[in-house]
Amino acid sequence: MRRTLQWALMLLLCLPASLTAQTRKHVILYIGDGHGIAPRTATRMALGQGRPGSRFSDEPNFHLLAQDRLRYNAMVTTHSLNSWITDSAPGASVYAVGKRGKIDNEFISLDPETFEPLETILEAAKKAGYAVGLVTTTRVTHATPAAFAAHIWNRDLEDYIAAQYLSSSQEEYEAIFNAGPGYDPARDWVLPEPKVGVEIDVILGGGARHFLPRNNPDVNGNATVRDRNGQPITDGNGQPVVLSGRRSDNVDLIEIAKDRGYVYVNSRDALLGILDRLDEFSPENDAKLLGLFSSSHRSYEAERQQLYPWEPALWEMTMVAIEVLKRKSDKGFFLVVEGGRIDHLEHANAGGIGYEGDRYTVVADVEAIIADDVYGGGTDRLAGVYGSDYMIKEVLDFDYAIEEGLNFMNDATAGQTLILSTSDHECGGFTVVGLHDAEDAQGNGTLIRTYARQPEKTDGQFTPVPENIDRGDDEIGGWFPEYELVEFQGKLWPEPAGPNARRIVIAYGSNPLVNGNGGTIGTTPGNHTPQDVWVGADDNVDGAFASRITGRGLLDNTDLFPIMRDFLGVTTTSNERLPDEKRSGLGAVEAYPNPFGEKLAVTLAIDRPQTVSLEVYNALGQRVRVLQPSAQLTPGTHTIAWDGRDDTGASVASGLYLVVARSGEQVVSRQVVRIR
Ligand SMILES: [Zn+2]
User: What is its EC number (predicted)?
Assistant: First the structure.
C-alpha cells in the first residue's frame, strides 16, 4: 500500500513535466502588411514560374513559395469598425483580440466603445505560461506588432508602446517614465488597472529610436552597432554605424531593458551569435532577447543586401526567435512575424498605366518613384532598380520567414504547431501588369508585354496580330521574365539577368488617392484598398485547427482569433463580444503560487453578473472541494482562497489538482500542484 502511494505521488509530481513534453504548443502568426495577391504571384514568377517547361503539375524544380505550401486557404475581409478601407492598427488589432464589432481606426487593441484595453491572444498566451515574441521589418513599435502587445489610443505614441513591451506590471511601466526628466503629468499613456500588457520574451526588428534618448543616444553605448564580440561595425565608408534616438523623455529604455533581463543585440552578426548562447535562455531564468537593428524601419531587403548587410533578414530574425522562444517555456510559444514593408513599397510605388502611340506604359514602375522617402528612412534608392524588384525581394524575405516556421512545424520534436499567414489589408491595388520590354526596360516609362501572341492563319500563313500594338510578337519565347537566381547569405534571390532583361512589372492599379503619404514628385501615391486578402494555415495535428479556415466560405477577420485561442487553450478576459445570450463572460482562472504549499489564491475574472461555481478535482477526476457554491457574482475579479483541505477538512495529498469554474455551459480550469 505504501509503495503504491509513493509511486502514485511520484507520478503526480512528474506529471506536469511529462505532460508538457507531449503537449507543447506553438502558434506562429505571419502578417504581410499590405500583402495582396499580385506581389506573391510576381515573386513566384521571378523564381521561374511560367518559363517554358516549368509547369506546376510536373516540374520538380518548380519554385513554390512557402506560403503556397500552406495546405488550407481562404479569403478574409479586412474592413474596420467604421471604414471599408482599414489601417494596420485596426487591421492587426482584430487578429490580436478577435473583437466582434472590430476596432476603430488608429486604436491599438482598445475597445472602441469603452476605450478599455482588450486582452490580446499574445497576452493571454503569456499569462497562461507560453513564451511570446514579436518579429518585424518595421519599427517594432509600429501598429501591426503593437496590436498584439500594447494598448493605446493612437498608434503613433510609439515611445509608450516600447515601454509597454518591457513591462509586466503597471509599476514597471510607470517606472520607465519616472526614470527620465521628460515625465508627462498628462499621463495619456496610462493603462487602466490592472495592466493588461505583458513583458515580451523576444522583440526583434527596427525602431531603436523609440528606445534611445533623443539627447546623446549613445550615452550608455547602446546606439553603437556592434558585432557579437562587442566590436563596433563600420559602414562602406569606414564610419561606425550608430543608431539614433528620439525618446522625448530622454530615457535610455535599452538600459532599463538590460536591467530587466534582456540580452540586447543590434547587428546581424550579434543576432546570429545568439545561436551560440542559446543555453542562456530557459524557463527558469529571466533572460529575454531585444534586437533593434535600425533607428526606424529595417532597410528594404533590396537595399539591405547591397548597402546595409549588418542588418538581419526577416527570416534570420524568425529563426533566432524560434530558437529562443522554444527554450523559454516548456509550454510552447506564440510568435507574430510581420513582413511590414511590403505595404511601404506599395504606398511609394504609385502611378498608372498609359498608352503612348503604339504601346502601353507603366509610369509607376520606374526607380524615381521609389525615391519617395516617406517610408524610406531617408536613404537613397538603388540606382537602376525598379519598384517591382524591390517588391519581389521584400516578399521573398517574408516568404523565407514562413519557410523557417514550416521547417520548425515539420520537425517531429517541435510539439504541436499551428501556422497562419495573412495580411491586415491590401495596399495600392497592385497587380502584375506584364513584363518590361527588353529594349526599353531602362527608359522613362516601361513598354509592357501582356499576353502571348495568338497567331492567325490566313491563306495557309500564320500572321501575328494585332498590327498596331507592339506586344513583342516577333520574339517567340519572349514572354517570360529573365531572372537569375543568385545566392546571398545562404538563400536564393532573383536578380535581373542583365540591365535590359525582361522583368516583371507589378504596379499600382487603382485607388489613386492622395492621402498625405507623399505625391511631391508628380505622382499619386497608392493607399490601402478594401480588397479581401488571403489567409493560409497549416498545422502538424492532422489539420485539426488549420482546416477551420476552410469549408465556411469567406471569413471575417474576427474569425482567426478563436482558432488560435482554441489551439493554445487560453481564454482572454475582455474579447469575444458574442451576443449576450451566448456570452458567459467567464474569464481565466488564475492561481498563485503554483505549486503551492499551505494556501492557494484562486482568482476568477468575469465581465457581467452571472452564476458561477468553483470546485477542485484531483487527478482521478474526483471532486475534493467546493470552493464556491453556485452563486451570483458581480463583474470584476474575485479571489477565493483554498487552504489545501477537502470537504471533510482533511489536508489533501501532494499532487496535481484541477480548479474548475463553471458558468452555464462554459467551463474554464487551471492545473495546480500541491507540494506538502
Ligand atoms: Zn499602409
Answer: 3.1.3.1
Please list the residues that pair with 205 across neighbouring strands.
292
Give the whole-angstrom CA distance, residue 181 versus residue 360. Answer: 59
CATH number 3.40.720.10 given to 8-432+526-567: yes
- pLDDT score for 622: 81
Rounded to 5 degrees, φ, ψ at 59 are -100, 115
Residues whose Cβ atom is located within 5 A of ion ligand 1: 343
Binding residues: 33, 142, 144, 338, 343, 347
Contacts of 202 by beta carbon, 8 Å cutoff, 6+ apart: 131, 132, 133, 134, 135, 288, 289, 321, 324, 325, 328, 335
Q: Which residue has 451576443 as its cell numbers? A: 579
287: number of Cβ within 10 Å: 17
* Residue range 628-664, pLDDT digits in tens: 888 888 878 888 999 999 999 999 998 888 888 888 7
Rounded Cα gap, residues 518 and 528, in angstroms: 14
Residue 447: is its pLDDT beyond 80?
A: no
Domain ranges of the chain: 8-432+526-567, 584-674
What amino acid occupies position 613? S
Catalytic residues: 88
| Binding-site residues from annotation for Mg(2+) | 33, 142, 144, 338
Fold agreement between 8-432+526-567 and 584-674: no
Which whole number is the average pLDDT over 313-341? 97
| C-alpha 512 to ligand 1 mean position (Å) | 14
Crossing angle of the two packed helices 37-46 and 387-410, in degrees rounded to 10: 90
Q: How confident is the model at residue 452 (pLDDT cuts 50, 70, 90)?
A: low
**Which DSSP state fits 285?**
S
